[in-house]
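Task 17 of the worksheet. Students: predict the tertiary structure of the chain below and write it out as structure tokens. Keep your answer in the requested format; marks are given for formatting as well as content.
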Amino acid sequence: MKQFTFSELNRQSGEVLDAALIEPVVLTKRGKERLVILTAEKYHQLVGSPGIAAYTLEGAPDDIHNELMEGIEAIIDGDGDA
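Model answer:
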């Protein structure tokens, strides 16, 4: 992932935005990561599309959590199709 400072963003916004179209870009301030710029498509993949529920593993309803854990265990055991 490419990194730019906020100052670089002010001076080179075109380059930063072009890079963000290829891969997520980290913006730093005083050496710390503060923001990530990513495409709208990638954002929607991460948060889910409207009408589609997205959960963390811990926050998923029991039935979905169990299904996810079974799939993970199958992959670990070598029984999965992944």
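Marker's comment: The chain has two domains: 1-51, 52-82. The mean pLDDT is 84.
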